[in-house]
């Protein structure tokens, strides 16, 4: 079997770099439908080399490289503050990136593509745990609506090219991710990296307390990024008949989560323990909490043979080790 040429869009991001690690370690999980496992040729481009919001540049890249598969992990991402402050950038950049890549993949004959979305596609008050068929059944969370709409558009792009042109473009919806390569910006990061930085700085500075946004009762599910990468490769490598029988025609995407959630207050205490911070933890209810609960129903993916392996405590320790390398 010829080595597949696999383009990982966003290979420097947390998820994209984890997918590259996964592909480099296990290759094409085998045996595949076409024969034994093989080591892929991984294609990457930095933002300086290829602006994914530039349609002409993206088409020229696909014409030159002719990838067989695409993992679309490139995106503009951020936490509640960033999403709420920069909605125009979040909707514009994400729409442009996914539209350019998916259309170029189709135009240049890419056989398989995997689009990575987000759990924020579901309604703010969706029944818990959130099933795939909850999509478009209610109002989105206002603080990240722009990002969520862009991700929903990505799902529908894949669905539309599959329906009209017979492509095999799949979508996976990860829960909240964390781990090596995360963004630890003090304002624009997600909750786990933000808390890791805050508790670490409090420990170093002997601060008496750490303030957490919200009242601490909102519950979230967290998945270590290398588990997400393993799930992505697993879904990409499922034969089309198996995938279609378990996913289509009921839905056009598949959830990826660990099946457990935790209150933000409990999460903060767990992070403080990993870091060794012994001060007080306080809460600021004037700050937004986001949805009261976000737990994914990953039954469909579990039925297809994948389950998360890295627990939260182990994952937090690995994430803190990564932070210390910065």
From TrEMBL:
Residues at the catalytic site: 147 (proton donor/acceptor)
EC number: 1.1.1.271
Organism domain of life: Bacteria
GO biological process: 'de novo' GDP-L-fucose biosynthetic process
GO molecular function: GDP-L-fucose synthase activity; isomerase activity; NADP+ binding
NAD-dependent epimerase/dehydratase domain mapped to chain residues: 6-238
Function: Catalyzes the two-step NADP-dependent conversion of GDP-4-dehydro-6-deoxy-D-mannose to GDP-fucose, involving an epimerase and a reductase reaction.
Name listed for the protein in its UniProt record: GDP-L-fucose synthase
Gene: fcl
């Amino acid at each position: 079997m010829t080595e597949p040429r696999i383009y990982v869009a966003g290979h420097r991001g947390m998820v994209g770099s984890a997918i590259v690690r996964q592909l480099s370690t296990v290759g094409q999980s085998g045996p595949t439908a076409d024969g034994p496992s093989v080591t892929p040729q991984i294609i990457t481009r930095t933002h300086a080399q290829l602006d994914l919001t530039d349609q002409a540049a993206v088409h020229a890249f696909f014409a030159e490289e002719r990838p067989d598969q695409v993992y679309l992990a490139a995106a503009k991402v951020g936490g509640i503050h960033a999403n709420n402050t920069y909605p125009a950038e979040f909707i514009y950049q994400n729409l442009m990136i996914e539209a350019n890549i998916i259309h170029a993949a189709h135009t240049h004959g890419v056989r398989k593509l995997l689009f990575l979305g987000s759990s924020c596609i579901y309604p703010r008050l969706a029944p818990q745990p959130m099933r795939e068929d909850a999509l478009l059944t209610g109002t989105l969370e206002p603080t990240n609506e722009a990002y969520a709409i862009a991700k929903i558009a990505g799902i529908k792009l894949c669905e539309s090219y599959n329906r009209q042109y017979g492509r095999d473009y799949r979508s996976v919806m990860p829960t909240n991710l964390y781990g090596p390569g995360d963004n630890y910006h003090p304002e624009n990061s997600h909750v786990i990296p933000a808390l890791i930085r805050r508790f670490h700085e409090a420990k170093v500075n002997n601060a008496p307390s750490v303030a957490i946004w919200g009242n601490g009762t909102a519950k979230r599910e967290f998945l270590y990024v290398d588990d997400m990468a393993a799930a992505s490769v697993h879904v990409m490598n499922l034969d089309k008949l198996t995938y279609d029988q378990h996913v289509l025609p009921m839905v056009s995407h598949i959830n990826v989560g660990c099946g457990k959630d935790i209150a933000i207050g409990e999460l903060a205490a767990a992070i403080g323990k990993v870091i060794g911070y012994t001060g007080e933890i306080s809460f600021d209810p004037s700050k937004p909490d986001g949805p009261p609960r976000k737990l994914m129903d990953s039954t469909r993916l579990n039925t297809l043979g994948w389950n998360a392996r890295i627990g939260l405590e182990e994952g937090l320790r690995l994430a803190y080790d990564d932070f210390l390398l910065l």
